[in-house]
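If you are new to this repository, start here. Below is one unmodified record pulled from the training split, so you can see the exact layout before writing a loader.
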Amino acid sequence: MAFDYGSIDLGLKNPFKAEGAVNAVRGGLQTIAGLVLLISAAGTVKENAGSGWILMAFGLLLLGGGIRVLAGGIYATLRYFVGRNHPTSLAENRSKSESSTAQEESAYVAYTAKQLEEMLIGRKNATFTEPQGFLARLLHTFVPKLLFMPYPIRNFAQRLFGAWISTVVGLIAYGLVAFVSLAGFAGTAGELLFPVYSILLMVYLLLVWRRAGKPINRKAERNIESLGGSALTKTIGLALIVPVIAGLVASWILVKSRISPEQLDIFTAEIPALNPGLYIFSVLLLGAASAALVFALMRKRLSATTPVAEVSELRENWQESVHPNEIFINLDNLVMANRRYKEVPNRVYRELDPQLREQTDGKGGFRGEMIQEVQPKVKPLDLGEGFKKVRLATLISGNVLSAIAVLFTLMLAYKAVDIYSFVAAPETGSLKQILNSELIFPLLGLGMGALHLLLVGFLLKSFGQLLSNAAHIYFAEIQFESLLVYFKCEGTFTESKISTGTGIHDSTRSENTLVRSSITPWVVVSRIVSTTFASTGMQNLEHPRHILEMHRDDRELQSIKTDVVNFLKDRESIATITSARDLGNASQLHQLNQQTRAMPASQSLEQDSEHAGYLRREEEIRLENQDK
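And here is the target side for that same chain:
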């Protein structure tokens, strides 16, 4: 949405200052590491071009990533631009004053006007969707209140739970592989291939936790990700089948190549050990620590949710002398407009379009409905000092792990230079000569050292990203409180004429058409608590806003009723003169009429008596004729 400036502040502050500062420190350290490599490359490239280009490649990689993190951290600490149109509306905003904004935010709204009507009338919350998949249902069974969390928190919890389930299943599959291989089901080569399965398990766990630490994208903020058990069945099945197939294939290769298992053992003994068990243990240790921090944050957030779905409702019948259109005009232009927050126009999700169905003899019916939301105001999400400390610890831990991963990348760059120098040294000969001689073992030692640095850096970066993203979710959540009003009015009306000032001596007359309406209003009011997840940049609040709580608000409902009823009772049905000049003119006309028909009072009384006697005689004659 475009930034709409207003002099009245909505009270929404930048939630990312602390996170931006920590990220900026890490980005600065990574930038310095990149500059160190580039300076070192500049001094090395003249003596050894290959080593210089290797250091330059690693330096550019670290420098680019460091500048990106540094700029993002600084950017997050700058002024947070919030316009008069923020946050995103619940549904498409049909307010005429916000037509351009509504078109820009239409891609981010979470509901439709029909859904909001169903939620209010049906006392239900469509935000809380059913978990999809076996594992998702299992997690929600263990943590029932997770159902009432915002989508990013639910999705991140499901990812973390899925990573642990995948880890446990991987370990079970590894045990099955060990049984199949070591028990002889995979042939003579099964036992020789067992270390390979350990390496595969290590790589599998690293990839699982790397995937779990991915940032929550915008699509995941609008729905719940599926978490099924089909992948687990596939993993267990492959754990039983792959060792048998791999063992048979390896045995066939050994027979064809005429290499005995003893020769293969002698060769592998000279290769430096990768020690995959240490990496598996590290994954389990870091995974447990990360899960503990995330669970502490989630537990605090779960304790603050009250998933009520209640509304205040008014259903009555009023008999009033008012035109039906006046009811809707008063409700829209006065009653609802008086409830604006800081003079921001209300969000109109269903326009008030009164429909009058006129019939014969001045009779007919009418109906109209509307849905409006008062401008949301920020609701502080205070989860206590303990929550803030755990959130900060999670953020710092993630950035520390990422910074250590940068250090291992720096070491990997120099290890790559050592490998290049060993291969390019004149005394070692060509690469083919190295592979066919005893020099292959020192080369394998250097390569294994580089692989260790790469794996450690990958491991630390994966868990650093996981913790940083977990902290970011809890920094980004912003809650709002607003009033959501649904109004529907139906009824009938009939027209009649009323005349005043028709006396024989009246000089001024008023004729009015009186509309008598039978009004049946249905008003539903709910004080809602909604949440959105902010970000930095131009689209800082262009995210779906979901309703988490719906509370009764009897006081506001009574206030709306009082305003409408007072308007109806204060209506004037007879037109009169309100101008002082018109009153003076009417008075002059009245005096003129009195003068033109003026006569002595005694004469007037005598004429009235004669007229009365004449009428009595006429009545007596009529009665006598009837008797005859």
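Two things worth knowing about this chain: Residues 19 and 395 are 7 Å apart (CA to CA). Confidence is low (pLDDT under 50) at residues 601-605.
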